[in-house]
Every structure is written in structure tokens, then in C-alpha cells.
Design brief:
- The complex is a heterodimer of chains A (284) and B (159).
- Chain A is α+β, with helices and mostly antiparallel strands.
- In chain A, the strands form 4 sheets. Chain A has a 5-stranded antiparallel beta sheet. In chain A, strands 11-12-13-14 form a 4-stranded antiparallel beta sheet. In chain A, strands 1-3-2 form a 3-stranded parallel beta sheet, with helices on one face.
- Chain A folds into 3 domains: 45 residues, Uridine Diphospho-n-acetylenolpyruvylglucosamine Reductase, domain 2 (2-Layer Sandwich); 111 residues, 2-Layer Sandwich (Uridine Diphospho-n-acetylenolpyruvylglucosamine Reductase, domain 3), CATH 3.30.465.10; 106 residues, CO dehydrogenase flavoprotein, C-terminal domain (Enolase-like, domain 1), CATH 3.30.390.
- Chain B has 159 residues and is of the alpha+beta class.
- Chain B folds into 2 domains: 76 residues, Ubiquitin-like (UB roll) (Roll), CATH 3.10.20; 71 residues, Orthogonal Bundle (DNA polymerase, domain 1), CATH 1.10.150.120.
- Helices cover 36% and strands 16% of the residues of chain B.
- Chain B has a 5-stranded mixed beta sheet, with helices on both faces.
- The mean pLDDT of chain B is 96.
- Classes of the chains: A alpha+beta (284), B alpha+beta (159).
- The interface between A and B is medium-sized, with 28 and 29 residues.
Chain lengths: 284, 159
């Protein structure tokens, strides 16, 4: 690892100022950055730790059941949070799929998202929760819906010095579920990741959100599939139509993990399957 | 590049050190403090050989910068026994022969220690899954799992 200057600012403003300088990197949990620095794919001149900045950790719920997750919250905490498990099960399931317990005790949800891997395990659940990403920078604060955050593999709309501070999940899902398609039970990267969330009233799907990971240059929402579902009663035929529409929304690549064709086919299968689980959970 | 002063609390001892920011906790433990019980395997957070406990949580010390853990409570394999008494998980690994070459053993013991202490009621399947971040290249997993289950039983009956 190349050497670097290390900073541990106590305020967001100071962190933003340092991060806006050239060749600066933010340190959250470190489980992506340190691997990159060891491989010399990351050679920052300065590393700015966010660990001393107050207010960036923890999971809180307000009176309207809107949940806020600090960007520096460990993914292990997201995985075990009763509020997340209850209201955004798919996100807790996604968090539980990252690395090992040792890694999840280090990795943060903000880091998992800011790293902008199309295969990030928390991203499908956040998409299905319609998460709002709160960002702080030199010009103040702004909010970006998570489906507008990513611009390409490893790329986001964040500009120099901008830092993700927290995620807001506006309202609970009646039921949601995440499936990571993979070979190994743990310590694997997703072939694809699919999260479905539904809100059901009197047997009718009033809202549906489907987040897809590792099937396009960025994580995406399957909006056409969502529209097919809304206002309808769930039937096998409807779920099959939604699965097909979700697969049609993807533009996967073939790589060492699997082929583009397999990815597309499995988006269809897993969209149907996650929807079925989400609907079962909504009933119970 | 400037070195940073850190105060590392390792196994109850305080170490006031001046370290380069690029030094991982693993490197500081082994090379600076001389605690070589913690092993370096893959160096990329995949194998668990370097597992130590920081503020009660098992972490891979190769994925932690030493400068980030000042004033946190760090426990390594050398700090598990108290007053010459082995922790039940250490004794269980000896009783069951839960090791072959021994290289993965400190990491397995530190990861299992947290698991059995926080919830000894886990099922065998749950322990197996929770230890997914530790690799034994001798592939002696059966005895390792026996050790963890024995320690969990002991802790359950003791409490």
C-alpha cells in the first residue's frame, strides 16, 4: 500500500473541504478502499476518515414510519435492525449477504452505495424501498432518489467533496424480499440481485417496487414491471408478465460469473419469486 | 508522509505508538507490538485468519487501518485466557482436535468466541453459516464445528 496523509475531521464541512482536493478518498468501513489500496488500483494522497463526524450512524424511525439510516451505519447493524427487518425486509436480507460477519462489522451502508458497484448487495433493497440519498457538500445539502444516483459502474452523480450522509426510506412496504443469485452461500459476489417490495390493500397491489443489481451498467428499477402490477390482484399470470417486463428492462453483460442470457433469464425467474415472497409477507 | 500517534488498547495493555497511516491493524499487532498469534492469510478480508475482536465485534484486522482504532478495545488470541484459564472455546478446540496445521485456528477461535458468547443457542447450521468468513485450507471443518458446539454447550450450562 502506498503511504498517504490521514485525516479524521470532526465536521462534515471539514471533511467535504478535504475530500474536494485532488487524489483524496473517503474512508468509511474500508473494506473496498483498503483492498484497492493494497492492489494499487487506489493510490490516494489523502484518506479522510468519517468515523469522528457525529450524526452519521444509526437507524431511526419517525412517527410516520419513515426510516433514516446513517451512511456510516455498519451493514451488520442494518441486517439485524428490527425496524429494517420488519418494514424493509429485502434491505436487511441484502445487508446479510455481504461478505462475512467480520466484513459486515466493518463495512457501512454508505460505503456499499458510494462505491457504486452494480452488484452491491444493499442497493436492490434500497431501490425497492425508494430510498432518498441525502448528500452534503460545499454548496450545502441535496437529496437524490437512489435510482438517479448511479451513472455507471463505480460512477455516481456525486461531485467533488460531496458526501452521502444518510438514506431516508419514506414509507414501509407491506412485504419485501431479496434474492441474491450466487454460487457460494457466503463470501460471494452476486450473479444478479433482485429485490421486490409491495404494498397491498384488500388483496390489490397498490404499489410495487423492483430493484435489480448486476444486470445493467448501474443498478436499476424495473418500472414497467412495477406499472403492470399496480392496481391489480396478484395472479400467477400477472407475476409472469412482471417477470418478463423486468427481464426486458435489463442490459446485462457476460463475464466470468455467468452469461448475459443466464442473467436475463434469472431476472425473470427471481422477479416472480421475490414478488411471491413479498406478497406472502404482506399477507402475514 | 507523517506518522500518527495512536493509543492501542490490546488485551488490556496500552501501547502508545507512532505509526504510518498505511499500516493495517494486523501489521501493527504482529510487527510493531510483536503479537504474532494473529495470522495473515489472504490479506483481502476473505479468509478470516486475521480475525480479532474490536469493541466486542469480530473483524478482519487486515481490513482495518491501525490509525482508526485508537482507544478502542482490541482483543487478540493472546488475550483470551484469563489467569491461566483458557476460554471455553480454546479448551474445546484442544479437546476435539479442532485444528490441523493450526494457521486458521486463532481466526476461527476469535470469530467463534464472539458467536458463542453472544448467543450459545445457535444451531449447528447457524454456527456453520456464521463462520463462513473463516477458511481452513486443511479442510478440517468437522472438528472445528464440534469444538464450537462443545463450547456453546458449556457456556449454556454454565449460565
Amino acid at each position: 500500500m502506498k503511504n498517504f496523509e490521514y485525516f479524521e475531521p470532526n465536521t462534515l464541512a471539514e471533511a467535504s473541504r478535504l475530500f474536494a482536493e485532488e487524489h483524496a478518498q473517503l474512508l468509511a468501513g474500508g473494506t473496498d478502499l483498503i483492498i484497492g489500496m493494497k492492489a494499487y488500483t487506489e493510490t490516494p494522497k489523502s484518506v479522510i476518515s468519517l468515523q469522528n463526524i457525529p450524526g452519521l450512524t444509526g437507524i431511526t424511525k419517525d412517527a410516520a414510519n419513515s426510516i433514516t439510516i446513517g451512511a456510516m451505519t455498519k451493514v451488520r447493524e442494518v441486517e439485524l435492525s428490527e425496524e429494517i427487518l420488519k418494514h424493509h425486509t429485502a434491505l436487511a436480507e441484502g445487508a446479510s449477504e455481504i461478505g462475512s460477519i467480520q466484513i459486515r462489522n466493518l463495512a457501512t451502508i454508505g460505503g456499499n452505495i458510494a462505491h457504486a458497484s452494480p452488484a452491491a448487495d444493499t442497493v436492490a433493497g434500497l431501490l425497492a424501498a425508494d430510498a432518498q440519498v441525502h448528500i452534503s457538500g460545499a454548496d450545502g445539502e441535496r437529496t437524490v432518489p437512489i435510482n438517479e444516483l448511479f451513472t455507471g459502474p463505480g460512477q455516481t452523480v456525486l461531485t467533488a467533496g460531496e458526501i452521502i450522509t444518510h438514506f431516508r426510506l419514506p414509507s414501509p412496504a407491506s412485504g419485501s424480499h431479496y434474492i441474491k443469485h450466487k454460487i457460494r452461500e457466503v463470501m460471494d459476489l452476486a450473479f444478479i440481485g433482485v429485490a421486490s417490495a409491495v404494498n397491498v390493500d384488500n388483496g390489490t397491489i397498490i404499489d410495487a417496487r423492483i430493484g435489480l443489481a448486476a444486470v445493467a451498467p448501474t443498478p436499476i428499477r424495473a418500472t414497467e414491471a412495477e406499472e403492470l402490477l399496480k392496481g391489480n390482484e396478484p395472479t400467477d399470470e400477472l407475476l409472469a408478465q412482471a417477470g418478463g417486463a423486468a427481464a426486458a428492462a435489463t442490459s446485462p453483460i457476460s463475464d466470468l460469473r455467468c452469461s448475459a442470457e443466464h442473467r436475463k433469464e434469472m431476472v425473470d425467474v427471481l422477479t416472480r419469486r421475490t414478488l411471491q415472497y413479498a406478497l406472502d409477507r404482506a399477507r402475514n | 508522509m507523517s506518522k500518527h500517534p495512536v493509543s492501542l488498547k490490546v488485551n488490556g495493555d496500552e501501547h502508545d505508538l507512532l505509526i504510518e497511516p498505511r499500516k493495517t491493524l494486523l501489521a501493527v499487532l504482529r510487527d510493531t507490538i510483536g503479537l504474532t498469534g494473529t495470522k495473515e492469510g489472504c490479506s483481502t478480508g476473505d479468509c478470516g485468519a486475521c480475525t480479532v475482536i474490536v469493541d466486542g465485534k469480530a473483524v478482519t484486522s487486515c481490513m482495518v487501518l491501525g490509525v482508526t482504532v485508537s482507544d478502542k478495545e482490541i482483543t487478540t488470541i493472546e488475550g483470551l485466557a484469563s489467569d491461566g484459564e483458557l476460554h471455553p472455546i480454546q479448551q474445546a478446540f484442544i479437546d476435539t482436535g479442532g485444528y490441523q496445521c493450526g494457521f486458521c485456528t486463532p481466526g476461527f477461535i476469535m470469530a467463534s468466541k464472539v458467536l458463542v458468547d453472544e448467543n450459545p443457542n445457535r444451531t449447528e447450521e447457524e454456527f456453520r453459516h456464521a463462520l463462513g468468513g473463516n477458511i481452513c485450507r486443511c479442510t478440517g471443518y468437522t472438528k472445528i464445528l464440534e469444538a464450537v458446539i462443545q463450547a456453546a454447550e458449556e457456556i449454556r450450562t454454565a449460565s
